[in-house]
């Protein structure tokens, strides 16, 4: 016979679970606040120091296939004092944006082989764009203008300029022209990467053709003709 569980015991168990959940949630929030907003100081002097607060290393299956870099100009404005105090800032600084292809998603279903032409076709995932890296430490120009630029206005200008630079770099990296260039570089990198083990196995005459989702969408369910390069096949079917 099953033992009878009293309602008080059930309520106590639920209360304990809720307390544990609340304690864990509070501890997580406190760690997040401490990591992001608490100044780390030396124990003896109380002076703020430069130090790694947290470090997390995780595995990744993404292959870097291209990188866009250059110099950008970002501008921002700040208005205070009921519109009387306007300040502007112009900054030039280096930037870079990386492009990746997730190799982990290329399984057996993404590979097809033509024995007649000795061609391996790889249906690769599309290129992904990483978050832009703005090198604010490498600024080559900083111009701030205004009748009076307060400390708060200067901080706001710096934050806005950084946000504008991030947006502008990402827009450039995601433009159709840049994405097309990144896909061509990714195609060459993946073909070279996949051809290496085939050549090591004595299959040096194998051709590797890499396709991306936008190209496969034009096939309309037809099998890709691996006897010709993708650009030539698409050109013949237009």
Q: What does this molecule look like?
A:
With 238 residues, the chain is α+β, with helices and mostly antiparallel strands. The protein has one domain (62-237). Helices cover 38% and strands 26% of the residues. Strands 1, 2, 5, 6 and 7 form a 5-stranded antiparallel sheet that branches. A 3-stranded mixed sheet has the order 3-4-8. Strand 3 and strand 4 form a beta hairpin.
Topology:
Blueprint: H1 7-37, E1 62-80, E2 85-102, E3 111-114, E4 119-123, E5 128-129, E6 133-134, E7 141-146, H2 151-173, H3 176-200, E8 207-211, H4 213-216, H5 230-237
Parallel strand pairs: 4-8
Antiparallel strand pairs: 1-2, 2-5, 2-6, 2-7, 3-4
Put the structure in a nutshell.
The protein has 238 residues and is α+β, with helices and mostly antiparallel strands. It contains 5 helices and 8 strands.
Note the main attributes of this structure.
single chain; 238 residues; alpha+beta; five-stranded antiparallel sheet; three-stranded mixed sheet; 8 strands; 38% helix; flat; disordered C terminus
Order of helices and strands: HEEEEEEEHHEHH
Number of folding domains?
1
Helix share, percent:
25-40%
Strand content: 25-35%
Q: What is the number of strand segments?
A: 8
Structural class: alpha+beta
- Report how far the terminal alpha carbons are from each other: 77 Å
The overall pLDDT, averaged over residues, is: 83
- Main sheet overview: 5 strands, antiparallel
Q: What's the alpha carbon Rg, rounded to whole Å?
A: 28 Å
- Note poorly predicted spans: 219-238
Shape: flat
Number of helices in the DSSP assignment? 5
């Amino acid at each position: 016979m099953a033992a009878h569980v009293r309602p008080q015991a059930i309520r106590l168990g639920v209360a304990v679970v809720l307390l544990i959940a609340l304690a864990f949630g509070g501890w997580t929030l406190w760690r997040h606040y401490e990591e992001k907003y608490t100044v780390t100081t030396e124990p003896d002097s109380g002076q703020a120091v430069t130090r790694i607060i947290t470090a997390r290393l995780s595995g990744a299956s993404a292959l870097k296939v291209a990188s866009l870099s250059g110099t950008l100009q970002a501008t921002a404005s700040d208005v205070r004092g009921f519109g009387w105090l306007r300040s502007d800032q112009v900054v030039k600084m280096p930037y870079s944006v990386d492009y990746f292809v997730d190799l982990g998603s290329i399984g057996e279903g993404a590979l097809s082989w033509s024995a007649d032409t000795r061609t391996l076709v790889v249906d690769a995932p599309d290129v992904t764009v990483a978050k832009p890296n703005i090198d604010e430490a490498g600024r080559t120009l900083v111009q701030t203008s205004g009748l009076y630029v307060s400390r708060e206005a200067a901080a706001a200008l710096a934050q806005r300029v950084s946000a504008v630079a991030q947006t502008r770099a990402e827009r450039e990296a995601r433009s159709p022209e840049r994405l097309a260039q990144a896909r061509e570089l990714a195609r060459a990198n993946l073909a070279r990467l996949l051809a290496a083990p085939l050549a090591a196995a004595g299959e040096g005459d194998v051709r590797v053709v890499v396709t991306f989702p936008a190209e496969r969408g034009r096939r309309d369910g037809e099998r890709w003709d691996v006897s010709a390069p993708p650009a030539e096949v698409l050109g013949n079917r237009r």
